[in-house]
């Protein structure tokens, strides 16, 4: 049984429509009025020859299926393929139309079967090209730039990171205070000063790294189309929030903290192979055209990509 984390419903809608000569729809209406209520259900695949009927409900338009100019609803009925049942209202006060396009329960399975039947699903080890579909099952990481910027409180993180070292340093100071032998005490004090300097340098270095990380995340958030990514072996896959079944923060809480031991399956389309991760020369006459390479360089500097990795547009991500 699949536990879907991500599903690009726009892509799946397109796939179903092209393979079924139309998109299955589920359309429900909910109308409120002084005396009674009315609900309608219409289902079907495609429009062709049809019979039209009109009644007054106010101006409504659903591209390809329904259109009601100036308060007249046009219902298109296609014998044999498109059926319709209606209950009309009297003394209508207000109406609310709720339209939901639902995928068939087996829509993703249909697409996977299509990939298998056509032998289109490649593995990342097959050296895929841009435009190829891939299906990969492996461990993964979840990254969300906006969330990371929120939690990167530098002073607090440094305090947490060096808490044990500070405790050891405090313990060492107490031990030195209790030493009676002056020569031994001088030796231990010299040792203490050395440790304090090492700790100070380590904190300074860590703070610089955090500051760079914050700047990098802020820069990437401004120019990349999304803040959320899935990382797998040689794959970076951008996630659109509207197709996620859970919020990025929930996924990070469940599966964050490094590479998860749980494996996930990714089905997607390769859009690009990363061939360069070095910072380009921005002083050249072609600097304007080099900015895409700057993004790769920054992503590489924060250990998110390497040369030879692939950018994959995700279609579905799920656990099994």
From TrEMBL:
<keyword id="KW-0175">Coiled coil</keyword>
<protein>
    <submittedName>
        <fullName>Uncharacterized protein</fullName>
    </submittedName>
</protein>
<dbReference type="Pfam" id="PF19952">
    <property type="entry name" value="DUF6414"/>
</dbReference>
<feature type="coiled-coil region">
    <location>
        <begin position="162"/>
        <end position="209"/>
    </location>
</feature>
<dbReference type="InterPro" id="IPR045633">
    <property type="entry name" value="DUF6414"/>
</dbReference>
